[in-house]
Amino acid sequence: MNDFLRAKRGKSPSKLRELLAAKGPVKDPVLAPGAYDALSARIIEQAGFPAVYMTGFGSSASLLGRPDVGLLGMAEMVGNARRIAQAVDVPVIADADTGYGNPLNVIRTVREYESAGVSAIHIEDQVMPKKCGHMENKQVIAAEEMVEKIRAATEARSSKDFLIVARTDARAAESFASALQRGRLYMEAGADVLFFEAPQSEEEVARVAREFSRVPLLFNWAEGGKTPPMSLDRLKELGYRIIIFPISALLVATKAIRAVMEQIHNDGTPIRAAQQFMTFREFTDSIGLPEIQQIEKRFAAGK
After folding, report:
1. By C-alpha distance, which of 247, 252, 212 is closest to 134?
2. C-alpha closest to that of 98 among 35, 149, 64, 164
3. Which helix (H) or strand (E) covers residue 44, if one does?
4. Which label site among 158, 240, 247, 265 has the fewest CB atoms less than 10 Å from its CB?
């Protein structure tokens, strides 16, 4: 678990590349549930996952209480990414939306996220302001413009272990064939990982895997989205290397908070719901209070 004294010294992004390069006849995908803040990131790490995904959808909901429709700027997203990266020791994959502008903006975006301590970002080919990938009425920029963004991103990073994930939203905005063509262009431009957003059938998911077997692929497991639910065994069989679960924690936390707030509103206290809570001691232990108390003793004045 994260050492408070080491938290701000950063971590090497090479760990994620090592996970993607794992040996074996059938490689296990990197499972990365979505964190919307530092607390949810710590819970994900404590559950034993090898990576954390900073969700843009969840970040917008958490920071603004609003949907993911391009309302957050780069500084706000990087700030959230920095807090998440400092809270955990596992690699963090972060949503970087469109890169927040043209190739010049992308250069700054890459440098800011890299300095924040994350191990990978994904940038998408949507028109600004963007929308959640499973919403309607998305638009995409010209493929050639996105190619230049990817080239700028790969040249801007200080370490090649900082991974650039190229995401295309062309399946909804144009066609599945267009998405495949864009994927080829983005791979040639130097993307480390490809992310085809919102394929609409299992056959489309499989077709992507067949056509892009030479590059790591990311699968977005979004409850209620346009992509059908698929088993881990099937995704492993197809060869997907990263699977993100961007809204699982957000949805379950929101439902639980709403339920207890309704209980307090109706009863005036949370007594009837209390048996469902973790204890105060369990919670403070999970966020590192014992470690903080030990540090306080070490640096207590006069001792």
Report:
1. 247
2. 149
3. helix 38-46
4. 265
Phi then psi for residue 112, to 5 deg, are -70, -45
Q: Tokens representing 201? A: 């059938």
Tokens for 64, please give them.
């603004």
Instruction: From first to last of the 303 residues of the chain, give the pLDDT tens digit.
Output: 567 766 544 456 779 999 998 755 557 899 999 999 999 999 999 999 999 999 999 999 999 999 999 999 999 999 999 999 999 999 999 999 999 999 999 999 999 999 999 999 999 999 998 988 787 778 999 999 999 999 999 999 999 999 999 999 999 999 999 999 999 999 999 999 999 999 999 999 999 999 999 999 999 999 988 899 999 999 999 999 999 999 999 999 999 999 999 999 999 999 998 888 999 999 999 999 999 999 999 898 655
Query: What type of residue sits at position 5?
Result: L
Q: What is the pTM of this model?
A: 0.93
